[in-house]
User: Fold these one by one.
Assistant:
Number 1:
Amino acid sequence: MSDLLERLRGRGWRLTAQRRVVAEVLDGDHVHYTADEVHARAAHLLPEISRATVYNTLGELVSLGEIMEVSTDGRAKRYDPNAHHAHQHLVCSQCGTIRDVHPSGDLLAELPPEERFGFQVAAVEVTYRGLCPNCAAG
Amino acid sequence: MSDLLERLRGRGWRLTAQRRVVAEVLDGDHVHYTADEVHARAAHLLPEISRATVYNTLGELVSLGEIMEVSTDGRAKRYDPNAHHAHQHLVCSQCGTIRDVHPSGDLLAELPPEERFGFQVAAVEVTYRGLCPNCAAG
DNA sequence: TCCTACATTGGACTTTGTCTAAGTCAAGAA
DNA sequence: TTCTTGACTTAGACAAAGTCCAATGTAGGA
C-alpha cells in the first residue's frame, strides 16, 4: 500500500493525512466496503475526517484506476481495491458477502456479433449469485 | 399483457385500477424504466396514483417473477418486463441505453468448482458495456 | 347490499451521495 | 526556515431514490 501512496505522489497527488487513512483502510485483498464503512474505519484512525473527503478520495482513486466501484445490490456502491487483476464477483443472495472469482473462458467473446447491435463492446461485468456455505447451513 | 393480469388474478391478486395501469406501462418488450418513469407514465393514465403504490406494485411483480430488477448504473433500479426469457444486458457507457442480449455458451458453467468457495451458485448476471452506434458516431 | 381484509394515499423519514463557501495545509520557492 | 499559493478539507445544506405508517378507500365474496 505504500507502493500505492508512492505511485499517487508520482502522479502529483498531494499527500494528506486524510488520503493516507483512506488508502490504509482499503489495504487488504478481499475487502469490499461501502463508502460509509470506509468513512467509519477512517474516522477510527482520524476522527475529524469528513464524509465529503472520503467520497472525494474514493472517486479519485476510481478515476486513477487504483480501486473499482462495484454495485451488487442496487444500494450503496462498494469499493474493491483489487483493481489490477481482472476478476468478477460471487455474491451471497442472503447475507451479501462478496468474493472475488475468476471465471474460465473469454466472457467478452461470448457475445456474438449479431447480438452487439453495432455497439463497440469494451467490457463485461459478471455477478454470480447463490448461497454462501454459512447461509446454506443456517 | 391481459395474460399477465389474468395470471395475477389467478394468484389471488386483487385487481385495482392502479395495478392495471402499472402493468400497462410495463407492457412492451424492450423497455427498461426506472420506478419514477413508471410512475410518470402511470400518472398519465391515472393522475392520482401515488409513488408508494408504484413502488409496492413493482416490488410485488418482482416477487411474483413477472418482471426483473436491473441495476446497471448504481443509481435508480430499472424494471425489465422481459422476465420469462433468460437474457443479459448491453449498456451504453455514455448515454445509458440498455439492450437485451443473448450470449452464447453456459455462463454459469464457466465458474469452476474451485472458484465457488462452497457457494450454491444459482444465477449469473452479465452486463456488457460499450458505446452504442449513436454515441460512437457523435 | 354489506363487510372486511387488502390496497392506496400523502407525507414524513432514511439512505446514499453531491455541492458549496469558507477555512486549512502540503510542498515548492526564496 | 518562512512564505505563498493552489489544492485539499470541512460542515452542513441539498438532492435523488426508496421505505414506512396511520388514515382512508375499495374489490370481491357472503
Number 2:
Amino acid sequence: MPEGHSVHRIARQFARNFVGLPVHASSPQGRFAEGAAVLEGREMLQAMAVGKQMFLEFEGDTWLRVHLGLYGAWDFAGEILVDPTIASANGRMGQTNQRGTDLDGVILDDAGENSLTSIGAPRKTRVHVRMSEQTKGLADEDAEWPPPVVGQVRLRLLTDATCADLRGPTACALQTPDEMLATVAKLGPDPLVGDPAEGEERFVRIVRRKPTAIALLLMDQSVVSGIGNVYRAEMLFRARLNPHTPGRDVPEEVVRQLWRDWVRLLAIGVETGQMMTMDDLSPEQYRAAMASRDDRHWVYRRAGLPCRVCGTEIALEELGARKLYWCPFCQR
DNA sequence: GAACTATGCGGAA
DNA sequence: TCCGCCTAGTTCA
C-alpha cells in the first residue's frame, strides 16, 4: 500500500536497471498477456512517477502505466544498482507487512552498511539479490536465473541482469503518449515533478477554494499527488490542524506550510524508504519510537493510545471510507 | 486453515 | 454510499 515515496523509489530503480536496455516482458499469470506481448523485446526509454502512478516508456510511443493500489508490489531480483542518493537498494518495493512497517527493501543498519534484512521484505526467500559492485559481499552466485515465478505475477520485466515482478496492481495498462499525458493532467502537483513553487501555488489555489474538509483534500489525488492515509494523518498532526476544517477556512499560510511539509516528507521518504514523520524528534526520542516498529508515527494507527504531545487519547473515525487518526486536543 | 486487515480507487446504486 | 477488485502477511482457532 504504497504512498508517493515508494512509487518514486520504484521509478528510480527502473531508471537505473532497465532504462536504455531491451526488456523481455511476460505475464506469467496471464492477465496482462496481450500487453506483455506488445512490450516484448522493446527498449525501455524512461521511467517516471507522478504521485502514486508510475509510467514506463518503451520504444514505439508506448507507455506502461502502473498503479499499485492497495496490494500491489514490485519485487526486484538479480542485479540491483544502488542509487547513491538513496539510502537503500531493495528487494521488495510497495507492499509492506501488516505490522505497520513501511520500509522499502534493504535498510541501513546502525553501522551504516547496507544490509539485507527481512524488514520490508517479508518474503525474502523470493528475493535473490545480487548487489552491484557498489555494495559488497552480498553475491548470491547460486541463485537460479531467471528466478522461478512464485505466486500471481501479472507482469515480469527482465533484462540480462535484473528481474522485476509485478503483483496485485490496481492498474497495469498500455497507453499512447496522449493518454499518458491525459492521465498526468488529471493529477494534482507532485513536489518531485515540475517546479515545486508552481506546485505550491496550484495546491494553495485549489485548497483555498474548497468547502471540503482538509483531511479529504489531502487524500484527493487531483488536489495533490502522492499523499495517502499515513501521510495525511501525520501531516495534519504536524500542522496541529483539525481534519474537519474546510479547505477554504485553512489560513493561507497554513496551507503553504502543509505543502512545504509534503515536499520535505516526500524527499525524506524517497531517500530512506521509510515514512519518516517524526523527523523533528530528538535522537533519543526517535530511537525509542523506532524501537517499536509498530509505533513510529504521531497518530497513525495509534487509536486509543495517549498523544505523544498532550496525552489525550488518539481518536479514530471513518472519513471518506478511510480511517482517520487524530488528536482531538492538539488538533482542536 | 479461516478470518481479518491494509499506505487505493473506480464504478454501480 | 457501498461494493468489488485482488494480494499476502498476521492473527486466531
Number 3:
Amino acid sequence: MAKHTAHPTPVQAVDLLVRTLGRHSTLSVRDERAFRKLHPRVSAATRDEDIVRQGDRPDVSVMVISGTLARYHTTGGGDRQYLSLHLAGDLPDLQSLFLGIMDHSLCALNDAQIALIRHTEILSLLKRTPSAAIALWRHTLMDAAIFRQGITRNSTRSAAGRVANLFCEQFTRARILGLASGWSCALPLSQTQIGQVVGLSIATVNRATQMLRNENCAHLRAGRLNILNWRRLSEQAGFEPVYLHEDLSGQS
Amino acid sequence: MAKHTAHPTPVQAVDLLVRTLGRHSTLSVRDERAFRKLHPRVSAATRDEDIVRQGDRPDVSVMVISGTLARYHTTGGGDRQYLSLHLAGDLPDLQSLFLGIMDHSLCALNDAQIALIRHTEILSLLKRTPSAAIALWRHTLMDAAIFRQGITRNSTRSAAGRVANLFCEQFTRARILGLASGWSCALPLSQTQIGQVVGLSIATVNRATQMLRNENCAHLRAGRLNILNWRRLSEQAGFEPVYLHEDLSGQS
DNA sequence: CGGCACGTTGAAGTGACTCAATTCGCGTGG
DNA sequence: CCACGCGAATTGAGTCACTTCAACGTGCCG
C-alpha cells in the first residue's frame, strides 16, 4: 500500500501547527520559534477510536495531522450527537487546557494521525511567549463560530437543508486547508453518522442525500464528497460562509 | 420608580468583571490591577435593541452589567435563531476582538446596562499583562461549551425536553452568578422567543410549557422562571451541568 | 460462498407545524 | 370604574415532515 507512509515526525507536526495558525494570525519570528520548540508525541488513531472521553481530565491536547476527527456528546439515553469535524491542523480539544473536565468526547472518523502536546508544555510556551496565545485563542474562537452555525443548521433547516449545509461547510473548510481536490473532499461519515451530526434519522438522511444527488447538487460515496453544482447546493443549504473567516485580511 | 437607580460607574463595571473572571480563574494581584485600569463606557440598552449586528466589525466588546442579552443568527429567510443568553459579568462578543467580522448579532432581551470596552484597551492590557489573557480566554471557552449543549439540546431532544433543558441551564447559570432568588430567576423571553432558542414553533412551545407547568416542574410568568420541582425538571431535560463548570477547583 | 456493514425502500405512525380563532393580562384613556 | 386596545398566550383542526420498523438490496472482504 502506498498509503502506508512513514509516521510524521514531531518537526513536521509543529510545522503544520505553525502553518495552520499562520493562516489567520500573523506569528512573529519569536512566536514561530516558540512553537517550534514544542515536542509533540505523534501517534495514530484508528477508525472509531476514542481519543478523549467525556468526563476525562486530559493532560495533553490533540492536533490533527491527517484524517478526520470528531467531537461528540453522549446523551443520557446513550445516543450520540456529533458536534464538529476536524481536519489537519485543527486542535479539537485545546479547550481542555483551561476547562479541565471534558464535556464531550473526541474520536477518529477514519484512520488518522495525531500529535499530542502536553498541557504543561503549552502553558510554559504561553508564559514565555504570550503573543503566541492569541493565535491559539483565535483558533478556539473560530471553533465556536462553527458551533453556532451547528445550532442554527440543526434548529432551523429542513432535512435536505441540513445535509446540504453540512456538505457546504465541510467542503469549504477542506478547500481552505488545501485538502480538497477539485470539487471533491474527504467526508468519512456513514449515513447513520450524518444523522448524528444534523439531528435526523437515518431514513431521512438517506432520502435527503438521494435528493441532493438526483438534483445534481452533491454526491457522497465511499467517504468522499463530490460537489456537482455548488450554486444549487449552497442555495439549498442557506450557506453563508462568513463565519469560516476564509479571508486573511483584517487580522492582527 | 425604585428601579431607576443611578448609572453604574466604570469602577463598578470593572469590579464586576474582576469578580466574574475570578470565579473560574485565579487572578494575580497584578492581573487584577491591570483589569482595574480599564476604562469601560457604561451605557444602557433597551428591550429588543441591537447592540451589535451580524456583519459589523466592532471596535469595542460588551460586558453585561445588568439585564439579559442574547446572541442570534439571522437566516437567509429572515428568521431568527437565538444562540445564547448572557447575564451580568458575561462578555458576549469578546470574540470580535480577534474575529473581526460578526457572524451573529447581539441584542438586549430586556432593558439592560452594559459596559463597552475598547478593543485597543483590551489588547494593550493583554500585551502588558499576558496572564490576564488566560482568564478571558477561559471565559470564551465556557461560552463554547454552552454552544455545544445548544446543538445537542436542539438536535436530540423532544419539545418538552428542549424547553426543560433551557430552563435548567438558565436557572443554573443564574444561580451560579448569585442572580437567582430561591427557586426563581429572570428569563425575559416570550414563548415566540423560546421557540427561536430551541427551534420550535410557538404552538409547540406553548404546549410544552403548559405540560411542564401542569406537571409541576416549572412555571414561566412575566419574564420570571419559577422552578417547582428541580428533580423532575432536570430529568425531563436530560440536564447534565458539568459543562457549566460550577466547581471552582482544579483550575489554574 | 457467506457474512457483515451500509444503503435503500415502503408503509404506518406521530410529533411538530400552520393557520386561524379565541382568550388573557394589563395598561390607557374616557 | 369601565371600555378599549394590544401584545402575548392558548386552543383546535388539519396537514406535513420526519420517525419507526421491517424488509430488502448491494458491495466488499475473508
Number 4:
Amino acid sequence: MPGKAKSRRGEVRGEARAGRPAAKAQSPRRSGCPVSISLETFGDRWSLLIIRDLMVRGFRTFKEFHDSGEGVATNILAERLRKLTTAGIITAECDQADARRINYRLTEKGIDLAPVLLELLVWGARHEHTAAPCALIANMAENRERVLAEVRRRWRERDATPLLPKFSDAEVEGKSEKRGRKG
Amino acid sequence: MPGKAKSRRGEVRGEARAGRPAAKAQSPRRSGCPVSISLETFGDRWSLLIIRDLMVRGFRTFKEFHDSGEGVATNILAERLRKLTTAGIITAECDQADARRINYRLTEKGIDLAPVLLELLVWGARHEHTAAPCALIANMAENRERVLAEVRRRWRERDATPLLPKFSDAEVEGKSEKRGRKG
DNA sequence: TAATATCAGTTGCATGTTGCAAGTGATGAT
DNA sequence: ATCATCACTTGCAACATGCAACTGATATTA
C-alpha cells in the first residue's frame, strides 16, 4: 500500500502554525474559498503534474511518473501519490500480473479536474515558450467540449492512449515570440 | 518599485540543482509542456490567491492582499508580487493620490487566467467543503462564458466591484456532505 | 511643525519542505 | 541461486516559508 510511513516528522505537532498552508482537513486556519481549498488539496506543482500524466499521457505507475522528464524526487513523488489518494483524487490498486506494481487511476473527483488542466494547457501554450505544437493546442482551445469528452471517454474505458505526447525539453529555447504575448 | 531587494540569497548560485523547480527562465531543466511551464510561472498557492483577489475580489493593494484572510506572510507576499510582475502577469503603478501605495493590476496575460481560476472555483465548490453558496457557484458553472465576459469587462473598465465576496472561514466545518462526493 | 499612523516592504532566524543518493524489502526474470 | 526491477524509505544538506520586529517614505493629526 502506498504511503505507509513508519513515522512522519511533525506528526506530533500541536496547533498548526498560523499562516502555514493548511494541508490537513482539520486545521483551524483555512479560508472558506473554493479556490483556496482546491489549492490545499492538489495545488502544488508535483500533484498537478501527476494528474496531468494520468489524464493526458496515459501513465499509471510510479516509474512512469518518475520518468516523465520533470525531475521529481522519489520521496516527493511517493508523498504526493499518498496525499492524492487520501484526498480521493486518485486510487491505487495492486497489479494482478505483477505484485510489485501499483496502478494509479483518477477517481470521478480527479477526472473532474480535466477543465482545470485544459485551461492551464491552453494558457501556457498561448503565453509562454513551450514545445507544444501550436496547431494542436489551437484545436484543443477551439473544441474544449470535445476534448473534455474524449478525456472522459478514455478515463471511463481505461484507455491509456495518450492524448498528448511528451513535449521535448530542448525545443523550448529559440522559439519565436508568441503572437500577442506582452511583458 | 516593488521587489527592489538590496540583495537576494542564492543570487550567486551556479547551475540550478537538478530536479528543483525551474523558477528562472534560463534554468536548463525544464519540461516543454505548457502545464509544467504554467505552473513554474504562477503555480504556487500564494500567486494564485493574489490573482484570485485581483480578479474576483477587486483588490489592488498590498494591504488588501495581506488582509485577505489567508494568512500570507509579508515577505512571501512581496516576493510573489515581484515575481508576478517580472512574469508579466500583473503590473504595479504608484498611486497618484497617495505615494505610499502601489496599485496592482492584471495584465492581458494575467486576465487570460480567468478560465483557470473559474475552473478551480467550480471544482472546489463541487468537491470540497467550502463556504461558497451553492446557488452562486452553480450559476457560474452554468454560465461560464457570461461570467468570463463579466470578469473581463470589469478588468477592462477597472471596475473593482467584487464578483465574489470573501467567504467566511467559520462556515466550512459542519457543512453537509457534497452531493456526488466520493473518497 | 512635530508627533503619530500607515504603507510596503526588509531582515534575521527558526522551522518546514524539497531533493540527492544510497539503501531496503518484495517480487519477477534468468 | 543470482540478478534486476519496483516502490518506496532514509539521513542529511540546501532551499523555502513564515514570525515578529523593524525600516524608510509618506500622509494625517494635533
